[in-house]
Amino acid sequence: MIRVEGLVKSFGRQPVLRGVDLEMPTGSITVIIGRSGGGKSVFLKHLLGLLRPDGGRVLVDGKEVTSLRGRALDEVRRRYGVVFQGGALFDSMSCVENVAFPLREKLRLPRAEMGKRVEAALAQVGLEGIGDKYPAEISGGMRKRVAIARALVIEPEIVFFDEPTTGLDPILVNTIHRLIQDLHRRFRFTAVMVSHEIPEIFEIADRVAMLHQGRIVEVGPPAAIQQSETHVVRQFIRGEPDTAEVC
Fold first, then answer.
1. Which residue has the higher pLDDT, 76 or 21?
2. First-to-last CA distance in the chain?
3. Maximum CA pair distance of the chain?
4. Which of these, 137, 183, 239, 246, is most buried using a 10 Å CB contact count?
5. pTM of the predicted model, to two decimals?
6. Residues 6 or more apart from 23 whose CB is under 8 A from it?
């Protein structure tokens, strides 16, 4: 579904992506892991078309999207759902209004049909009956669920998850992971996720890619990554600090 070839990006004199190559198969959950500041968010923004690379390209279903603009880019984005880090709900909107937002922006459906789809999306994430509440009136875990419902309400082919469990306790982390896994099984969207949740993420991923110093240093099924002989991969998944960083 998504293929990245030789992606390069620098900000001023600071290189961030140094030639990223990665394939994300149709219907799979691909998880990008790596240290903070390693380029994961910048990589994700290129997939979303929010940044343009200095070199390389991104192909979605065989179509190069890195050079698209305007309506052509919007057509590709209509296939996307995005769960932003922290949820990124609109505080001034109720949960129903938050979930309905992409329907109004992208599909412009009749009010009655929009209402049915919003109710169904909230039910899919276990939040029946809370639509009139505002984000400040619900728990952190519920806000994450509303964000997921908002991403899925347009029935996207591809869903991007940017640190979807940031700030949650371990029980809620596993609850949200199981919800994502269940929704993926039901709707078979292609998922791309950026996450720091080690080892929990290995339970839901089909493929894991380690981004380190602007390059993919290893990619494969979770079991292979957990048994990796690559030093930086082993160090990251075991949480071992660099010797130079130890005071």
1. 21
2. 45
3. 62
4. 183
5. 0.90
6. 2, 3, 4
